[in-house]
Amino acid sequence: MKRYYITTPIYYVNSAPHIGTALTTIVADACARFHKRRGRAVYFLTGTDENAPKVHRVAQERGVPTQQFVDEMAEVFRNTWRQLHIEYDVFIRTTEERHKRVVAEVFRRLRDQGDIYKGSYQGWYCIACETFFASSKVGDSRTCPDCGKPLEWRDEPCYYFRLSAYESRLREHIVAHPQFIQPEVRRNETLGFINEGLQDVAVSRSGADWGVPVPDDPESGVVYVWFDALLNYLTATGWLERGDAYRDTWPPELQLMGKDILPRFHATIWPAMLMALGLPLPERLYGHGWWIVNKQKMSKSLGNVYAPLDVAQALASASGCALPYAVDAFRYYMLREMPTDADAEFSLEGFEARYNGDLANDLGNLLHRTLSMMHRYFGGRVPDGARLDAALADLFAQQAARTTEAYEAVDFPQGLREAWQIISAVNRYYDEQAPWTLMKQNNAERAGQVLYAGLIAARALCVLVEPVMPRVAREIACQLNIGEIPNWNEATATNAFPAGHTLQEPKPIFPRLQPKSGADTSARASNSDKTVQTTPNTTMQDLITIDEFKRLQIRIATVKAAEPVPKSTKLLKLTLDVGGEERTIVAGIAEDYTPEQIVGKQIPVLVNLQPALIRGIVSEGMMLAADVDGKAVLLHPDREVPSGSTVR
Ligand code: ME8
User: What would the pLDDT profile of 122-143 be if each residue is shown by its tens digit?
Assistant: First the structure.
């Protein structure tokens, strides 16, 4: 049976995954899970692009053998994906022998049939983009038209792929298959790119010693990394090795990538290579937009590159949310705010707002308040005669269908908006029907029916969010006590909870993040049975990195002398010994300690604080003490330590 074949790009391993790389992989994982849950056999491929010159260069700069470097980095990618709940079927690495055999074989075949020919190359190369540019495309600045980095001049004999010969066939294919390139904006970009005229592309690099050697002509160096990398999608099917059996996956139904690598590579060179090989083309190429940070492209030099796990971990620490659910919350944010046509701004504030608003207030609260009331009013058992009002049943089914349609179109923001309509409908329904009032009026039967809507809605959400938040979905299924996550097309079944079905005690999945100050604009108006969840007292933006912490130099000082500061009731002037160095500091502890009580004591002091003039005294640091209801309480080492000892 043909498997639904989904791919991500294979990632350059010169640096670790960031939120941009994670976006494509999370989108692919959500698509794979969605199609699996709809009953398709899925084949989900990701991996690493290891033969690139820039990868080799970074390994050399670090003084590590390149093979060792790529081995280590491939592990970093695998670990990151595992921790982000990515469930791929195959992880391919372009340094694998089976892949090198495919590259060599394709190169040979195309050369034998005249689609690859020998010539010479004069032009510019961008190492960052691993892309050749004809002189005519490069301005006087000699910087890359795509990324703006300086270009390298190349003048070398090389092989060319006859891309120009495929120009009209490519155009015809794109025009005849509106599904082939999505979203529409990328299709138009690609047609624009092709209409400028396709040039043959250099597909070998002489003088290079890392990559797949040009077959039968090693003097010509190695195969161009993009020609090599694109073929990973074919290698992973077992083409060359499995006879016709590779067709159980080929061609891919969905190839996902960022917008930068769609028009030039995946929508032109790649299908042209497949046409040259006589292979069917992928059905759909989808190019999402980019995450930008503070309106700028992410870059190491700007220091605005986020590592996905750091973001999830920070949320977990700040909110008290268990890490697997914080990871799912991160996945939710990635997909809810996913840049589709245009680029989108990634921000921690935006993440917090989605977390508090959509997850803690909406989804978490729907489950929590429904289960709480079921326990309070019905001892945690579904009462007799509970059934769903027809209007709600229709609405749930309609929203599930809309979610399905949007997920099918890789439009996760829309799909999630549609699914969340179910939550809003139940919240409105609770407010209108007020089960708490019904209970006071001794109308338990009607109250049970109203709460039954919450159960059906929570179960539907469990199904509809699974592709996006797989661990949260499992937890919802567990609290609803329904065992396995239900099948996709039974998401809104109205008879899912028989009378007497027991429910678990509710446990908050998404503890709220405390707003920094003032009103929390992300929170929705509360209604009467609002769940109270634990509130930590730090928000994510309050968290500092370990590097920021390391800038603080805290040492143990011994207090040599202490005296009151004239005309002040609060301040003491302390003379300290910090590892043989004498320092003076002014400390606000005179109301809590007399000079006699502090002399001889060992205390922690922040020694790299900018000096300050306080009441005419230069204070060269700050002592650290516990603050108990505004009173200072001294901190001491457990035992006497050499003065000047570092605190870390
Ligand atoms: O291009 N926002 O690998 P890569 C969203 N090895 N997506 C982003 C992004 C951002 N800020 N930054 C990068 C390569 N990406 C090649 C692929 S496939 C045969 C070879 C996306 O590691 C980018 O658009 O540079 C691309 O889809 C992916 O990360 C990998 O980028």
Answer: 889 998 888 888 777 788 888 9
